[in-house]
Design brief:
The protein contains three helices and ten strands. With 191 residues, the protein is of the alpha+beta class. The two termini are 20 Å apart. The mean pLDDT is 92. Bound molecules: zinc ion.
């Protein structure tokens, strides 16, 4: 496995539509393994193929860990998903605001309102169909990654033009923001 370079804005590939995966061959398996390693190396919770310069409807997701009562991250609660040609076919009417980052927009985080729950269908890495409901933070990660596959970035969906901060600004206002937000989850994600 190898770590791949991650492209950043204003790379044009981040804004293009991506084509469906049709061949589930050894090359695809290698690409997926490399994407998983790249995501882990970058400490991200998701990575979409256009972020490593591949115009494919493919993303990997590694869900955020549960946190125990003492604030420790429980690594073995994280789940890995490989999603191919995914489609969100249902969104809850309930939405939730949260703070997102993106490996392709380094140094910034911004506030985005997303559906609290979604249902996704698509294929796994071997071309087998899957269909699953996701909630809360995991639903947010899936929405962020599937947006990537349609050329959409979180900065297109900010709750307001001023609702974006550098990492440093964010650290300073973390407590204030956490109090404003609907959720208590540690807000910064990088994907
Ligand atoms: Zn992203």
């Amino acid at each position: 496995m190898s770590v791949l370079p991650i492209v950043t804005i204003p790379d044009r590939g981040l804004r293009e539509k991506n084509r469906p995966v049709s061949k589930f061959d050894a090359d695809l398996q290698k690409l997926i393994d490399d994407m998983i390693e790249t995501m882990r190396e970058a400490d991200g919770v998701g990575l979409a193929a256009p972020q490593i310069g591949q115009p494919l409807q493919l993303a990997v997701i590694w869900t955020a860990p549960d946190i125990d009562d003492d604030g420790n991250e429980l690594e073995d609660t994280r789940e890995l998903y490989v999603i191919v040609n995914p489609e969100i076919y249902w969104r809850s009417r309930e939405t939730i605001k949260g703070i997102e980052g993106c490996l392709s927009i380094p140094g910034y985080v911004g506030e985005v309102e997303r559906a609290e729950s979604i249902r996704v269908r698509g294929l796994d890495r071997h071309g087998r169909k899957f269909q699953q409901r996701f909630d809360d933070w995991t639903a947010r990660i899936f929405q962020h990654e599937i947006d990537h596959l349609n050329g959409v970035l979180y900065i297109d969906k900010l709750t307001g033009p001023e609702r974006i901060w550098t990492g440093e600004e964010f650290e300073q206002m973390r407590d204030e923001l956490a109090a404003e937000l609907d959720e208590e989850h540690d807000p910064a994600i990088g994907d």
